[in-house]
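Renewal narrative, Specific Aim 1. Our central claim is that a sequence can be written position by position from structural information alone. The example that follows is taken directly from our test logs and has not been curated for this report. It begins with the structure tokens describing the chain, in the order in which they were read.
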């Protein structure tokens, strides 16, 4: 059981630590929205590995204890396996999926919108007591049954982490949705979009979902970071070694421009149904934040099936094709 505390980490310390190191005194740079100045600023002092990703009295001590014993102790081990490209077993896939879903709904941002929804509908504010779910809950299968990719950043490229650490491009039961979760500055977990129909010979079972690692080309992480930063709520962290001028400019200009839509508030199993549900939620966000968000948001990283690279397509590149495809077309060029 965890120690009694009112400092509730919605982004666990065991995950945040990968954005720092002993060589950096276990600190990282952070950016946040300052309400007094009404703008995004870069923190003057570096944050320690336990000093970001929490909110005081976010949930009860009972929930804090359950997160520790029923989820995070297991998830931290799976986290290490994914970072080391170890393929998870079917049981482990379900546990990791439980963790991903819990990460999506345990943030201050999600709670803010859920509270407003419950307030409008006269609902039950005790929903926080059940945010952990269970390993074998049906909703976990929407993550576990997809193909997984661990995207590895190119040399000198990196991923960032925001206070909405799970980046979803749509409702969890919509096959075209893609789920991104940066594991470290160098690696990002992706639950890929799923093909709606798979035609198999009679008697053949569905293929088991894959888990693979793919190294990105130089600059690909910029497109991913671009949308992840926009989807932040109020803050993000970046490894000190990655905090250069261009990083600072991007964070200051984009942080929280259009916060992550809390897709877990509803369900939609196709793009048409999703559009209606998404617009309803965006209206809720506008009321809650007193900001007039556009009634439609296009997620640039949707869909992503994970097979694009083998087809010569690079969805993260401004050129739209892989380096191998360019080399094939221009064999004399040094790519």
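The sequence written for that structure reads:
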């Amino acid at each position: 059981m965890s120690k009694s505390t009112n400092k509730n980490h919605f982004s666990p310390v065991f995950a945040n630590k990968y954005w720092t190191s002993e060589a950096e005194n276990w600190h990282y740079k952070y950016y946040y929205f300052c309400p007094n100045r009404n703008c995004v600023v870069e923190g003057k002092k570096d944050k320690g590995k336990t000093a970001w990703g929490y909110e005081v009295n976010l949930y009860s001590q009972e929930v804090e204890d359950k997160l520790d014993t029923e989820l995070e102790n297991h998830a931290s081990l799976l986290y290490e396996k994914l970072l080391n490209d170890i393929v998870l077993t079917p049981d482990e896939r379900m546990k990791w999926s439980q963790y991903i879903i819990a990460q999506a709904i345990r943030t201050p941002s999600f709670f803010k919108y859920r509270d407003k929804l419950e307030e409008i509908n006269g609902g039950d504010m005790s929903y926080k007591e059940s945010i952990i779910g269970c390993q074998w809950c049906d909703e976990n299968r929407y993550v576990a049954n997809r193909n997984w990719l661990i995207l590895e950043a190119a040399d000198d490229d990196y991923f960032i982490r925001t206070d909405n650490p799970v980046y979803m491009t749509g409702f969890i039961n919509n096959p075209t949705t893609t789920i991104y979760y940066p594991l470290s500055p160098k690696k990002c977990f992706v639950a890929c979009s799923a093909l709606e129909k798979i035609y198999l010979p009679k008697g053949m079972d569905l293929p088991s979902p894959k888990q693979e690692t793919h190294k990105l080309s130089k600059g690909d992480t910029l497109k991913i970071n671009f949308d992840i930063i926009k989807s932040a709520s109020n803050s993000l962290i970046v490894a000190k070694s990655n905090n250069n001028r261009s990083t600072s400019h991007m964070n200051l200009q984009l942080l929280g421009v259009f916060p992550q839509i809390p897709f877990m508030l509803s369900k939609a199993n196709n793009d048409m149904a999703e559009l209606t549900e998404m617009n309803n939620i965006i209206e809720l966000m506008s009321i809650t934040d007193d900001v007039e968000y556009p009634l439609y948001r296009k997620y640039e990283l949707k869909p992503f099936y994970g097979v694009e690279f083998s087809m010569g397509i690079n969805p993260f590149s401004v050129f739209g094709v892989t380096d191998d495809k360019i080399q094939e077309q221009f064999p004399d060029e040094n790519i």
